[in-house]
Amino acid sequence: MWTTTVLLLLLTLGPRCTVTENITSFNQSESVGEEFSEAPVKGHKPVRGVKGRDTCSIPCDITVKLLRDEKHSVCGQLQQSLLAFGRSTRKLIRDVMEEQQRALDVLSSQVTELMTKVQTLSSEVQRSNNEMYSVKPVQSHGRDCSDIKDGLMSVVPKIPSGIYIVHPEDTDSSFEVFCEMDYMDGGWTVMQRRTDGLTDFKRPWADYADGFGNLAGEHWLGLKKVFHIVNQKDARFQLHIALVSEDDVTSYASYDDFSLDGETQFFSLRLGRYAGSAGDAFRGYDQEQNQDTAPFSASDVDNDGCEPSCSMGDRTVESCSARHNHTGWWFNRCGLANLNGCPEDAERGRGAPTRILWDTWRRGGVPHAVKAVTMKIRRIASNS
């Protein structure tokens, strides 16, 4: 391109420019050029410093114009290249983003599918646990587990523990209970069991009145059902509390007489004489800690005696249930016992402490960390 432009300009200039023999050789044969160069030209003086060649003088403004045109041409080509590069780069970025979006869509679909599978598996595990614990009730009616044991001893050599149907006297319906037939000669009706922390004891009054949980696992039998059992005519019941610490130490507390008042008295607790190795946490060390005769309290029914508040060391407590993570118990200004205590929500999970409280069971002056407890009642004598 450069050479062609120069030739055209030189031809236009005419007499102002003498073309060298190398340029004129494009229009003449090589042999003629050689002869002409060897013949001396009369009256012509060669340019000093140049041997055998003529010079071409191009005006500076033409040279500047040529260079400017060439620069503009190069700049135009560069702009076109940059535009093409920009288009290809944007297309590449768009393609990469679309590919990433497709990958995210696939990943989201996989996560959704995985969550569905986890939920399905969780349901299967729950169903399996229910099937494992769903022992069919023995269709042998009795007033309570002690009565069932007494009735079966003559016909069954070994009575198994499990879920039975009881029908206490003066009640309108039967209900299921778990009977322990192996522990201390059997005949025990389980009213509460804590073993693994999987059942939430943070419940309102209605749940504690009616009962909740799985009878073969963790459960609370229900204040109404316990009331019907222990208030049968001509019957007296003892309460036995079996405790297991985090380091698998066992202990117990027993009361030779146990009963509950009716719902209009908020199922107030009545205890007889204490015996055992865990200490009498129900009565504590002074009258303010005594939970014997205390009415039952829950998060929505407050009978704890804190009016308007209780002082617990350096803390002010307005609700003992709230202080014990909204669980229900026979609180009296909170007291030293709460076998329904459960961990705070942030701590709930595998390995979380159950916060079962039986403060009088101590080692080295420090209360044991209780991981499991069972409360059970048994008929002990008939009144005349």
TrEMBL record:
Its main location: secreted. InterPro entries: FIB_ANG-like (IPR037579), Fibrinogen-like_C (IPR036056), Fibrinogen_a/b/g_C_1 (IPR014716), Fibrinogen_a/b/g_C_dom (IPR002181), Fibrinogen_CS (IPR020837). Residues 136-381 form the Fibrinogen C-terminal domain. Residues 1-20 form the signal peptide. Pfam families: Fibrinogen_C. Residues 97-131 form a coiled coil. GO terms for cellular component: fibrinogen complex. It is found in: Secreted. Keywords: Coiled coil, Disulfide bond, Glycoprotein, Secreted, Signal. GO terms for biological process: blood coagulation, common pathway; fibrinolysis; platelet aggregation; positive regulation of heterotypic cell-cell adhesion. One of its GO terms (molecular function) is protein-macromolecule adaptor activity. This is Angiopoietin-related protein 5. It comes from Betta splendens (Siamese fighting fish). The gene is angptl5.
